[in-house]
Specification:
Alkaline Phosphatase, subunit A; 31% helix; 444 residues; 12 strands; 14 helices; globular; alpha/beta
Amino acid sequence: MSTTIGRREFLKRTGLGVAGAALAFPRPGKSAGSGFQALEKSQPNILFIISDDHGWTDYGFMGHPQIKTPHLDKLAAQSLTFRRGYVPSSLCCPSLGAIITGLYPHQNLITCNDPPGPPPARKRTPQEQQEFVAGRAVMTKHMEAAATLPRLLAQQGYVSLQTGKWWQGHFSSGGFTHGMTKGQRHGDEGLDIGRKTLQPIYDFIAAARKEQKPWFVWYAPMMPHDPHTPPERLLEKYKGRTDSPHVAKYWAMVEWFDETCGQVLDHLEKEGLAENTLVIYVTDNGWVQSPTTPRHLRSKLSPYDSGLRTPIMVRWPGKVQPKMSDDLAMSIDLVPTALAAVGAKPTSAMQGLNLLDAEAVAKRKTIYGECFVHTAVDLNNPAKNLEQRWLIDGNRKLIVPQRKGEPELYDLAADPHEQTNLAAQQAEAVAELKHKLDAWWKPE
């Protein structure tokens, strides 16, 4: 793959220095809201792979009849794979915020993609632009106040690299020691990763290895997210499998993303790092491609499984037994899982589980989530931005709207695509589950 910027220039911009130079690494310090306790010391490298706008059915191993994902299929076979994984919120920014902090959006206050004001596509007046920048600064402050995974890992001697999607300003706002994104809305130079180059990841790993530092890499390419611009060779492959050019482009994007995952994972093998690297996979939110437009159908921004569900994979050769699991898992579990792997405990605010604790995962029967507006009403009051709360209890799913509409109840075992609302016939179940939902978080 060709790089968008030269290797020396990338190393300079991210703080890596020139190839072979020492890593610029901050001294461990006390992070805001930390307070984890050390467990048995362990220092595996950690790789997060985060897909972007990717439907939960759209993998070979999840049974899609057309899409080919051989590299992710292989990863799933090598991992503890949760087929019933979920993100708490079906929108990029709050979902990524939950992944990096281990907190629900209403806890970390990152609930929307954008601050109040006109949509990003509209040309803003100078005053509106000034207000937008000020709002972004507030969102960045919320991230800076959180005990993020990179900050907690830094206390254990780790260096960390941000690539791909990143909404909260400069990469350092999340505690990353190195990164690509400098602060433009959702990624700027970071969005080159995967689509144009993987070299920054390879260079970072080489530099960390030279300095004998354990590392954490955030690989969150804007893939298969639109614009759907797959290589022609992949587009041609899928054009014959559907009558919709929009669907063909999306399917081809999924396979292109799969190829990049294979390249990163193959690099770990080639460098002899796979055995001591914890790999965790998740997607930020779902996507159902419209056959008639480039946009999506009921998925992103929705409280339905088409927007919230994702496979979650945890691979650690020799430490984690590969298994396909139908236990419930969540993206807020990823930080506690990574911390446990390095010998640390989560903060008291984190409600997720260590996914490697089989007993705790098996005992959990209920998970919770929340969906918000795209553009915030109030950056400091999550309830003002709330659209729906939801929970899954076994196979029952309750969706409770915040402003208008009636609760919805679905049997996910019989109706996985949520076509039949059972709320009117099962009023007692609705009341029971709403009581649980209110006990978790009842907005004022």
